[in-house]
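TL;DR need structure tokens for one chain.
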Amino acid sequence: MLVSTYSIVTNILKNMEVNYPLNFPLRNLFLVLGIILLYNQEVFAQEKQPFLNAEESDPVKMGWMTGFPPPADRTIYFADGSFFQFPALRWSVAHMRQFMPTVNVPKGFGVASQLPGNPYPGMDEITFTVLGSNTKMTWKESLAQTYADGIIVMHKGRIVYEKYFGALKADGQHAAMSVTKSMVGTLGILLVYEGLIDPAKKVTFYVPELENSAFGDATVREVLDMTTALQFSEDYADPNAEIWQFSAAGNPLPKPKGYEGPKTYYEYLPLVKKKGEHGTAFGYKTVNSDVLGWIISKVTGKSVAEVLSEKIWQKMGAEQDAYFSVDAAGIPFAGGGFNMGLRDMARFGELIRNNGFANGQQIIPKAAIDDIRKGGDKAHFEKAGYTLLKGWSYRNMWWVTNNEHGAFCARGVHGQTIYVDPKAEMVLVRFASNPVAGNAANDPYSLPAYHAVAKFLLNKK
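>> reply
TL;DR here they are.
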């Protein structure tokens, strides 16, 4: 059974960005195998046990965590991993702070910047063709198909479409998953243009603790663009994959008796081994973001949460505090632990679209945004084998489409998105809780839908 599970899931995951380290307590190999087999059964055997659709799995209708106490069959726990199993995860992603320790990203005492509204009628009826098929679908249908929890479309700085579903409310917060990477990457390139980080220097110039790791001879630029050569698998079907070790290290719960591995993210990173040559191929590895977070903290003397608050969150006029999940030592998870409100994610997207200018000030140097938008090496990216992302590249932890609109985006598992289309003057942000983690489950519906909305907006004043 294990061999079959491994081979089947490996093939399906080939083009997926399954990268979010689920902080399940790895008490023993049998628990790991149980989680893997459960994941395999629920995620990949869809023909035999199809998922509940978006309406059927609506977390409010299902009554998760309702009552004092909730009924046993509607109680969700972090310790046993149930918080991240579908359909319970549709509630959890909007309530992550209730499951794990976190650190605040304060908005400060300033007034929230305005987000004027100007809804456009007819957007629900925008039609597109699903990738790889002749199937037509409307924008509204795509939201249910991708299990959207919240969606905002901005055009020329105005909200033209805004909807919330399930457990997410307008004043709520949601896990951003690997959108976190792009926010940390933005901090990294901001500090480059402020002169605090030299991307040509070795990682060890800033973090000597990594001298004997795979990062010992890597440059900061290779970390930013994820062209480091690492022996680090994020294949959840493999119980020996390094992602499980990284997850165990970052698990904030007390380690099980007999555990002798690293106890924090910073204790794990020096153990990452090299495989191949740096700077030759793109490889999407979560640990790169956590190394960048460590560099940021070294050069500023502050945590990533503090730097994000001071450099961006307060200045752009966020309306809510955000937060990071942390490990047992309080280290923010720079690879996927950020949580925020949907409107603040839209504000951040607008800041990027407007070349770093927002709330009446230049918050990020325009040159830093230009550096993101130019994208990375397409040949390096192609080696990663993303069949749905032909012609794309990766730069400063942002995904660059290189399409005719010059669109680029931040992406997170289960459907989290910041999609910036400069030509259409559009920012689209989405929180979602698709039962399948990898973006390959969403992309056939999402990518053509985003482009169809952008083309619709090109005709609007």
